[in-house]
Predict the 3D structure of the following.
Amino acid sequence: MRYEFYYWPSIQGRGEFVRLALEEAGADYADVARGSDKDGQGVPALMELLNGKTVTTPPFAPPFLRAGKFLIGQSANILLYLGGRHKLAPASESGRLWVHQLQLTVVDFIKEVHNTHHPIASSLYYEEQKEEAQRYTEKFRELRAPKYLGYFEQVLERNPAGDKFLVGRSLSYADLSMFQLVAGLRYAFPNGMRKWEKKTPRLVALHDRVAARPRIAAYLQSPRRIPFNESGVFRRYSELDG
Ligand SMILES: N[C@@H](CCC(=O)N[C@@H](CS)C(=O)NCC(=O)O)C(=O)O
């Protein structure tokens, strides 16, 4: 089956967690809004599914995925679906729930990362909420980022099957998301990350292993990987990095 993946065309954003899973799975997919299918209809095709009056299961926001007759929204929900189909999650129900739980925690963390530059409203420019961003991000750097990263480090440490993967002894989509978190935080908060990484060696090692996986390495070198920029979730504003 050829998947149709829908996300804003110029950013990694929340879509990147799904792109990484599609790439690791070697799945056949079109990144529709980037014009790789649908006869180059791109963003209009995305908007049609988002706002079309006849869509009976409309997504609230991108990313979303069309898989045959399914239209699936919410990044963690899309990954729950792909994980089961492409062996990117354990076969057992308990294992799948655990991976899903970790991914939902990634979603929470991403929301807080987003709040560092948009603490008041997504509809305002960063420049219109710089003071609040500064205050929010001080606490993010002091408390939240170390807490989330420390949590994932602890999950690796406590995995009864060893600390190579978050869950069990094989790769899951949550491991791919760990790669993206480390890469994104290194981009957005290079100073902060240098400090936080010292306490999360397993997480950093997992990032490196994921980056070296043949399909992921090929993807990262390809034009399909959009570079980090100041429109996505991870933005480099040096004044927020302490
Ligand atoms: N929890 C959702 C969040 C989706 C979301 O916030 N998407 C952003 C782009 S990254 C968006 O377009 N939001 C529009 C809005 O919130 O109105 C997920 O993880 O997929």
Summary: The longest helix spans residues 130-158. Residues 13-14, 61-63, 74-75, 107 surround glutathione (CB under 6 Å). The mean pLDDT is 96.
